[in-house]
Amino acid sequence: MPRRRRLRKVVAPPGFKGYKPYGANHSKNEFIELLYEEYEAIKLSDYDLMNHETAAKVMGISRPTFARIYESARRKIAKAMVEVKEIRTAYGNALLDKNWYECHGCHARFTIPKTQNKHCCAICSSTDINLLKNDI
Amino acid sequence: MRTIITSSENKITAAFDKRFGRAAWFCIYDEQTGETEFIENVNLNASNGAGTKAAEKAVELHVKKIISGDFGPKAKDLLDKFEIQMVILQDDNLTVENIISKLKN
Question: What is the CATH number that goes with domain A8-15+27-96?
Answer without folding.
Answer: 1.10.10
